[in-house]
Design brief:
alpha/beta, nine-stranded mixed sheet, two-stranded antiparallel ribbon
Length: 258
Amino acid sequence: MDERLKIGISACFFHADPARPIFTGKTLQYIEQSVAHWVMSSGALAVMIPDPEGDTRRGDATLAHYARWLDGLVLEGGSDVWPGSYGETPLQERWSGDRVRDDYEKALAAAFIAECKPVFGVCRGLQLLNVAFGGTLYQDIATQRPDAASHREASLYDRHFHEIEFVPGSRLAQMYAGVARARVNSVHHQAIKDLASGFVVEARSVGDGLIEAVRRPGDSYVAAVQWHPEFHRADWGTLDDAAILDDFLGAVQASKER
């Protein structure tokens, strides 16, 4: 019997747009290729989890069914989080985020955590988890933290980098023993402002102290990073994220064996 781990990946959304020349007026749900390949690099199977809402023809499948069938969850990057998700009004219309995706991913994370299945967040995934557990975000770093370093350069995208420092004693620091700092990509303009209760910080951006990695200690594995581990390449001199994937999948395997 094939015992490969089955890892669910949350969907990104292209909402219905009558002006779009293809799939006119249709909602698209998809995953970014790199995150699927990152998960699959370990030998695990990557499965996109569609949002079951929005169509009466979906049958009776729910996110809880996926949480029971799959072994773990990755919340991938993408659109901004809707400020209303943490009790704020958008400072600008372009930062209104995706309320539909917020609701879907919060319900998805809750379903996996209820089954004690590990959850790992990437970029938006970190922000979503923080908000889901009561934390808040900077809607735009440059506006609300003008003292901060540049965390996003559109022209460079995944080749825009900065250094992080691991919090001593954290699980992440233990995974990279002897390494105090590392270089990671930075493609976000939002970040954690108030950390959710029950979470601990595992890495911060050097210089401005913005939160770059978190974990929620407890019975169910919940961890996240602000950078995109799936974008890193060995020849870029960036952090080797294999240990992060191994840590997550190790927790997935342990959960499966319980």
